[in-house]
Amino acid sequence: MDISASGMRAERIRMEVLANNVANAHSTQGVDGAPFQRQMVLFKPVHHSSHLGTPQSANSLQGVEVSAIVDDPAPPRIIHDPNHPDADEDGNVYLPNISLPREMVDLMTAQRAYEANLKSLQTFRNMAEQALTLLRGANS
Amino acid sequence: MADYSGYIDCAGSDDSDDEVDMLHFNQNIDTYQNLIRLSETRQRVISHNLANVNTPGFKALDLDLRLQEGVSHGHSAGQPAEARIIERTGLPARADGNNVDIDVEVAESNKNALLHQTYLQLLSGQISNLRRAMQT
What we know:
The complex is a heterodimer of chains A (about 140) and B (about 140). Chain A is an alpha+beta fold and about 140 residues long. In chain A, about 45% of the residues lie in helices and about 20% in strands.
């Protein structure tokens, strides 16, 4: 159950970051005056075993975690618009390195993965419930 | 891959005198218990795969369901309380090195849940048989 929950949490964080990217698709001024940079979420599988590679025991599997949220180093998009307040002396405006279709596709992937994790959670819940009916039978 | 038939074969067998029959009764319950535990473990692994469906470089995992050596049929059937984990083979990797197929995992998850339910029903049948025997 925790495993599915970790998956749902990771996908939710990813969706939030994607939504932030979409919202800032035209932010020409980021924190340091440079255009907003597209952010990416890095996922990492979690298991208890100390060494990397295939974990040995199923009980050590812990799902996934967001290891970092990093900026996409891709260069900004440049358009020529001398009337824009943020245009430089040549009339070029630096827009964030975000392409909406890409974000949308990522969003759909995240949504599908979220649903799959939810399904897995429900399946596990059903399994546990069915196991509990054994107890109910014992008391009757 | 998700075939536990190797374990189910071990249940029930040939001894005929009453004392051993009683033992077999317990043995069946043990077998089902192991199978149920095994399918729960496998559900963990499938959940782990699904949680990592977007992790670059992640390889889909599965349980090694072959009968482990040193386990004789009929005794301590369905042995592995802790089955070994292996990487699932034969799945094409995506561009990011991840080879988790979301549909395969969901299908395996459903199949596994169904197996789990079957074992639970069998176990519950055994228990009610036992209870009936005690009541008469």
